[in-house]
Structure formats: structure tokens, C-alpha cells
């Protein structure tokens, strides 16, 4: 069959679906737009209804030939429609000789599509500025005052525009607008909400863009920052010129050096203010044993073996029995006592806690005695502290808690 008999009469608008370089053919848009809306830019049909066959054959009019175009689920050649014959699945390619070009992405094995923001048979044409996205089908909402990002459509406003869609004109007379809020950022030498007021500051200062006040550079003071500080390399207060001495210097001109070993000097007379844990005129003496903190005024907790606590924070290495916390200043939690507060209290009277150091109970329940209330009353006694003598129970015995007579088996009666 002659090539002219398979002539393809569709219009020449190129689409964004392409074949790899080894099998690429200029694809065409369908003129009939079956079940679809025309492209907003070219008014042609979308590529979703038109594909090139991924397989090739030698006969020019065969449905698998380069002259055949797929519309919906049929190949169109010379005005006729031929159903697709099933083909075996292709391997996972888009590599080697079938690699997609720079502006393409692999959409399925052996098939490339233009990246967002590009179109054309070779995907070498950038979307016009008013469009973005796949096949340039999305309308840019910020055009003509901005440009849409190819993938997300996010606006980047042109100079002198701001807003989500670049819909606002910038009102800054001598500055730039924030792209979202429109707030002005003034150029040097201007201030105010719209950067409309000129600054009058010397070269030794900069202008505050909000108030227009002159902010002096380091080493200068005065309303117009024309006076030089005399503070031995330390800064001075802008309005009065009073020296603000750097660390470890003091005096009216910051020309004296601090002698404090573990503390800070007063900026005027050099008096030492000691760090926690130190004392003395020059803060050279650590706190004495048993004391810590600012001015050594706080007592250490119950550190084990009378070991000293740290002079600054008061921490102990380990605590005496019955004490807890990093400073050993907290008794054991209720119900616990002893080394590391790891022992449980015995059953003291009415559930009261034992001594947090020794574990001893203050009072025992009736019928019990001992430091931990572990011993029953004996020798004919009963009750609280075993202070009561049992009556003669005859053929029985006395209850160690209540003192009532408990008869032996086979015997009854009050005693």
C-alpha cells in the first residue's frame, strides 16, 4: 500500500505525549474531541484520547505501523477505525536507547511524557506564562503580574506586586514589598510605613526604618551620632555617652581591670559580686564544708558520711539512709525507709508511716510490739503495747489483741 493511501489528515498541533528517541513520531491531536474538552491554549483535543502505538510493524497501514494513531481504544488509518489487537506487555524500559530526554518523564515502560511546564512533540517548548502544569493545561491565576511554578502553580510576583495572586500593587515608594503581606522594606536612607520619609543621620549611624531615629554605630553617641565614645574600646550609651563597660573592665572610662576570681565587677567601683559557691573580697574562697550557694548561705543536705556537697548547686554524691534527691534534702516517700529509700515500712498502727531513716514505727497495732511491730504479745499479755494482763482462761488461751478467752476444742463457756 502506498504511503499516500495512509495519509494522516489530522491537524498539526503537537501534544505532550511522546515516544522514546528511538521510536518517536510527531503525534497529532484528534480533530473530533470525542468525549473531551478542547485544550485551552490550542483548542485541540487532549492527549488522553490520543496516543501513538508503542509497537511497530513494517506494513504502513497495519494498526501497529507508524502511520496509525490510537483514538480511545482503536487505531485510525485513512479515516477507518481498527480495534486494537492485544499485545504482550513490554519490559520496564525508559533506559538505554529508550531514555527520556531532559524535559520528559517516564510514564510507563517505553513511553515518555513532557514534564510539567513543557509541551511539544519533543517537549522542548516552555509553557506560555499564563499556563502551567501537565501539557500547559492549567491557567495561571497570577498572570500577568506574576509567574506560576510549573508543578504546583504557586505564584512568584513580579517587581512592585504582592498578594496570593499578585493582585496588589506595591505602595512602597523607596523600598520593596513583602510578597505575601505587602509590608515595606525600605531602602537605606528612607523610613516609614511606605518608605516615603527621608532619613537625616550621619555616616556613623543607620536610620531606624520604623521610626526614622538614628541608631549609632559602635563607638558613637548623641542624637545624630556625631560624638565619639571615650570608653577604652567599650560601647557607650547612645543618648548620654555613659560608658557600658565590657566584661572584666570597670571605671568611668572602662580603663580598669577586674580582680574578681570567681565573680563579676561592679562597672563603677569594681566591687566583686561572687558566683554561687564562692566568697571573699575577690571571690577566691570556696564555701566551707556543709554550705553552698550564693553567699554560701545555704546548708548542704544529708550527704553520706558527711561528705561536702558541691559548692555551687549543693549536690551530693550519695545520701544518708532515709534521704533522697540530688541534694539529699528530701525524706523517703511515705511507706519507705533506709538506704536508697528501698525498704518498705512494716505495718505500723492504723497504717501510719515508719521512721524514714530507721524504719521504726511510732505506735503498733494492739497485740504487737517491737521497733517494727513484728512481735506478738506473750506471757499472758494483750492489747496496745501488750500493757494488759489476760484473765485466767482455764481450758483455753487469751487472744493477744483483744484479751478475749479462746476455748480449746470441746470446751465452752466464758472462761
UniProtKB/TrEMBL annotation:
InterPro entries: EGF, Growth_fac_rcpt_cys_sf, LE_dom, MEGF10/SREC1/2-like
Pfam families: EGF_laminin
SUPFAM superfamilies: Growth factor receptor domain (SSF57184)
Biased composition (Polar residues): 1-21
Domain EGF-like intervals: 90-124, 162-196, 250-284
Signal peptide: none
Domain of life: Eukaryota
Keywords: Disulfide bond, EGF-like domain, Receptor
PROSITE patterns: EGF_1, EGF_3
Region described as Disordered: 1-23
Cystine bridges: 114-123, 186-195, 274-283
Name of the molecule in the record: Scavenger receptor class F member 2
Source organism of this protein record: Saguinus oedipus
Amino acid at each position: 500500500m502506498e504511503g499516500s493511501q495512509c495519509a494522516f489528515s489530522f491537524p498539526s498541533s503537537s501534544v505532550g505525549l511522546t515516544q522514546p528517541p528511538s521510536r518517536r513520531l510527531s503525534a497529532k491531536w484528534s480533530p473530533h474531541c470525542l468525549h473531551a474538552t478542547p485544550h485551552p491554549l490550542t483548542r485541540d483535543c487532549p492527549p488522553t484520547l490520543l496516543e501513538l502505538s508503542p509497537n511497530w510493524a513494517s506494513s504502513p497501514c497495519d494498526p501497529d505501523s507508524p502511520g496509525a494513531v490510537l483514538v480511545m481504544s482503536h487505531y485510525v488509518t485513512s479515516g477507518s477505525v481498527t480495534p486494537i489487537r492485544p499485545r504482550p506487555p513490554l519490559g520496564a524500559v525508559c533506559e538505554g536507547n529508550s531514555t527520556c530526554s531532559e524535559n520528559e518523564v517516564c510514564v510507563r515502560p517505553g513511553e515518555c511524557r513532557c514534564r510539567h511546564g513543557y509541551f511539544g512533540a519533543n517537549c522542548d517548548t516552555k509553557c506560555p506564562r499564563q499556563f502551567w502544569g501537565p501539557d500547559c493545561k492549567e491557567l495561571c491565576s497570577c498572570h500577568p503580574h506574576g509567574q506560576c511554578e510549573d508543578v504546583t502553580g504557586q505564584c512568584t510576583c513580579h517587581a512592585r506586586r504582592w498578594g496570593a495572586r499578585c493582585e496588589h500593587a506595591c505602595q512602597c515608594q523607596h523600598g520593596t514589598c513583602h510578597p505575601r503581606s505587602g509590608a515595606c522594606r525600605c531602602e537605606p536612607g528612607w523610613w516609614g510605613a511606605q518608605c516615603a520619609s527621608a532619613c537625616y543621620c550621619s555616616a556613623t549611624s543607620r536610620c531606624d526604618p520604623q521610626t526614622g531615629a538614628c541608631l549609632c554605630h559602635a563607638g558613637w553617641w548623641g542624637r545624630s551620632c556625631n560624638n565619639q565614645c571615650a570608653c577604652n574600646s567599650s560601647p557607650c550609651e547612645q543618648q548620654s555617652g555613659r560608658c557600658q563597660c565590657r566584661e572584666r573592665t570597670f571605671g568611668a572610662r572602662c580603663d580598669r581591670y577586674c580582680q574578681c576570681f570567681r565573680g563579676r565587677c561592679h562597672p563603677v567601683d569594681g566591687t566583686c559580686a561572687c558566683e554561687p559557691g564562692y566568697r571573699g573580697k575577690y571571690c577566691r574562697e570556696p564555701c566551707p564544708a556543709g554550705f553552698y550557694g550564693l553567699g554560701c548561705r545555704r546548708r548542704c543536705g544529708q550527704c553520706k558520711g558527711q561528705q561536702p556537697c558541691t559548692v555551687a548547686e549543693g549536690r551530693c554524691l550519695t545520701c544518708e539512709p532515709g534521704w533522697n534527691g540530688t541534694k539529699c534534702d528530701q525524706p523517703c516517700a511515705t511507706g519507705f525507709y533506709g538506704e536508697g529509700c528501698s525498704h518498705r515500712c512494716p505495718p505500723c498502727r492504723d497504717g501510719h508511716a515508719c521512721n524514714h531513716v530507721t524504719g521504726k514505727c511510732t505506735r503498733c497495732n494492739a497485740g504487737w510490739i517491737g521497733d517494727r511491730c513484728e512481735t506478738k504479745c506473750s506471757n499472758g499479755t494483750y492489747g496496745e503495747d501488750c500493757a494488759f494482763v489476760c484473765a485466767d482462761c482455764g481450758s483455753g488461751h487469751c487472744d493477744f489483741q483483744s484479751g478475749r478467752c479462746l476455748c480449746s476444742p470441746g470446751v465452752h463457756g466464758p472462761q
